[in-house]
């Protein structure tokens, strides 16, 4: 991640509004310092999330069945994955979290007992240790009737991530009325986290994109390409998991917890995209999309029907083209990016001039920024606003995460 220093900028369309949308009048705003991913989240990074959820589900199911059967580590087989001995009178927050969220059984009675991670999971069917292990593993795959060509495929609808968060803004506004309880503002989300790979087919009628549907997310050839087919809710779930994953590692090393990863606000995104260039049309300044050497500066659709004129038909690797002056790659083109802000055409008229954010939870239209590989140059402009519905996934929308900067930079440096 790169540190984006605090500062003020003119948010909105200081140049001609070619789209005649009239939804981005200029406004001087100030944002605090924050860290931001220098690239979009890649397939390999998101696959780590998917694998973690899958392993968590399997280990929890194995431990519960071993306990029900009374099989322990000394008996081998599924017993190798049995709960570790623990003080059941003092519940572990982590293990209660795992059991609540991944057993699919709600309150189980096993809260407070630690999961065993000493044994690696076995995925090769010929190496399954016993019939009980086979029973659990079969439960996460598609049935034989839904499979073809002898392939065993994970039932991705079972890969759900459940997490809780506190609606601090609602709590702060309600506190002035009194008689409020903290629990009233704790929200619980459960999200299917596997990317929707069918977007490559559904987004384009009468177009052959089956290879991208089949290979784009899972194949190593695309590991460093931006993940797509991710809804706003899935992007939020990834941010929560990334925070948990980092803090679990810090806890094991005796280090202090980090603050949360999250999606950027619309203002943060535009400020980072500008790269310190106050009146720039694009992240590199502009107003042109071709460099002085005749090369395109981003991955987009330069001409009608000619997607490959910029040397890329679909997406490109996340660290492609030249970064802007904040060292941010592909803030224009490649994939559009989710922000945390809700879309309102008149938002610029009422949002604060300090850390502005139109974060209306009831508004399901979420701002996307930056334009994509299938967009014309207008959508690549740093001030152009667009939106998509929070539950939608597209072949041209990805995301990157941010973290708040702790403390203040030395202004004398």
Automatic annotation (TrEMBL):
InterPro entries reported for this sequence: CTDL_fold, Glid_motil-assoc_lipo_GldK, Sulfatase_Mod_Factor_Kinase, SUMF_dom, SUMF_sf
Domain Sulfatase-modifying factor enzyme-like: 3-402
One function term, GO molecular function aspect: formylglycine-generating oxidase activity
Name the record gives this protein: Protein involved in gliding motility GldK
Any one Pfam family match given in the protein's UniProt record, by short name: FGE-sulfatase
Originating organism: Maribacter ulvicola
Signal peptide as annotated in the record: none
Taxonomic superkingdom: Bacteria
């Amino acid at each position: 991640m790169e540190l984006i220093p605090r500062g003020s900028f003119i948010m909105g369309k200081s140049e001609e509004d070619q789209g005649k949308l009239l939804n981005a009048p200029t406004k001087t705003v100030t944002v605090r310092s924050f860290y931001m991913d220098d690239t979009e989240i890649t397939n390999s990074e998101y696959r780590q999330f998917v694998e973690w959820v899958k392993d968590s589900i399997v280990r929890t199911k194995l431990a519960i069945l071993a306990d029900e059967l009374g099989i322990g580590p000394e008996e081998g087989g599924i017993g190798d994955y049995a709960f570790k001995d623990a003080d059941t009178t003092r519940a572990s927050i982590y293990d209660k979290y795992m059991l609540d969220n991944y057993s699919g059984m709600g309150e189980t009675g096993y809260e407070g007992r630690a999961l065993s991670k000493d044994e690696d999971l076995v995925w090769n069917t010929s190496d399954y240790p016993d019939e009980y292990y086979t029973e659990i593993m079969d439960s996460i795959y598609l049935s034989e009737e839904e499979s073809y060509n002898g392939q065993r495929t994970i039932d991705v609808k079972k890969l759900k991530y459940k997490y809780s968060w506190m609606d601090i803004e609602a709590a702060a506004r309600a506190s002035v009325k009194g008689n409020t309880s903290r629990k009233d503002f704790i929200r619980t989300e459960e999200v299917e986290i596997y990317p929707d790979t069918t977007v490559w087919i559904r987004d384009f009628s009468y177009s052959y994109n089956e290879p991208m549907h089949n290979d784009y997310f899972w194949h190593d050839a695309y590991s460093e390409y931006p993940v797509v087919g991710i809804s706003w809710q899935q992007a939020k779930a990834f941010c929560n998991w990334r925070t948990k994953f980092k803090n679990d590692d810090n806890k094991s090393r005796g280090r202090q917890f980090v603050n949360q990863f999250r999606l950027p606000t619309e203002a943060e995104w535009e400020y980072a995209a500008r790269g310190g260039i106050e009146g720039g049309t694009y992240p590199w300044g502009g107003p042109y999309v071709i460099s002085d050497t005749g090369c395109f500066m981003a991955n987009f659709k330069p001409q009608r029907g000619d997607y490959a004129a910029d040397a890329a038909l679909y997406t490109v690797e996340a660290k492609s083209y030249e970064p802007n002056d904040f060292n941010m790659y592909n803030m224009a083109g490649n994939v559009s990016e989710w922000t945390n802000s809700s879309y309102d055409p008149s938002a610029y008229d009422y949002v604060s001039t300090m850390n502005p954010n139109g974060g209306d939870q009831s508004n399901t239209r979420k701002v996307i920024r930056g334009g994509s590989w299938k967009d014309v140059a207008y959508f690549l402009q740093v001030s152009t606003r667009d939106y998509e519905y929070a539950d939608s996934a597209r072949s041209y929308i990805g995301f990157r995460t941010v973290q708040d900067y702790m403390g203040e930079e030395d202004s004398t440096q």
